[in-house]
Amino acid sequence: MKIATYNVNGVNGRLPVLLRWLELAQPDIVCLQELKAPDERFPDGPIRDLGYDAAWHGQKAWNGVAILSRIGEIHETRRGLPGDTRDSHSRYIEAAVGGVLVGCLYLPNGNPRPGPKFDYKLDWFARLHAHMATLVGLDAPVVIAGDYNVMPTERDVYAPERWLDDALFAPDVRKAYARLLGQGWIDALRHLHPDATIYTFWKYLRHAFERDAGLRIDHLLLNPVAARRLTAADVDREPRRWKKTSDHAPVWIELAETPARRRRSGR
Description:
Blueprint: E1 2-7, H1 15-25, E2 29-33, H2 44-49, E3 53-57, E4 65-69, E5 74-79, E6 92-97, E7 100-106, H3 116-133, E8 142-147, H4 171-183, E9 186-187, H5 188-192, H6 208-211, E10 218-222, H7 224-227, E11 230-235, E12 251-255
GO molecular function: double-stranded DNA 3'-5' DNA exonuclease activity
Domain Endonuclease/exonuclease/phosphatase: 4-248
InterPro entries: AP_endonuc_1, AP_endonuclease_F1_BS, Endo/exonu/phosph_ase_sf, Endo/exonuclease/phosphatase, ExoIII-like
């Protein structure tokens, strides 16, 4: 089973890119972020034409998350992160698909820091921490995937000294991510490629992609049951080369049907 996460940076504006990638990569389950579209404008038809079922939680102008599946029905289990009934942002959707519980998230950016946006990010992270604590011990594979808007370590950012004041690299945010791992979640990419330089996002400015001046902010976290089935994980950099593309690249993992022996790689 191939599961991917992809911040599309506008699902309608980047629809040709998304459809091209789906047709080429053929992931079984996909988590999309930053739809930038209300529910009624989600491009359900073209996506279904490629054989994908879809569940989405949209929002006008920004945010928005979706789960796609080509291996069976999507049984939605949650829409919105629990813990704050006043939160109107469309940043979390969760569903059971093909025997896996999949959570798709778009964690707040948090800039400028300090300020109310950074406070909201830390509060959202705390709510995520509480919710994921209820999922990590399930006797079923769980994958929480998406744009976490955090570079966990200096290895995950080009020129880390330039990001010291940014909310994506703030000590409190990195500690919050580390607390998730402390619950027992496995960072799939870093687990299989512990020493590699891996980025998932490159700014559009100053030829950042061509210089490989990027960030690793898109993550797939696996509970222990899912981690025992993990056989591969990587970044599909090719769509980032295409015209009118997102500033993120898709990130994917492969899960075996049963716990599998795997080989670590330094890429």
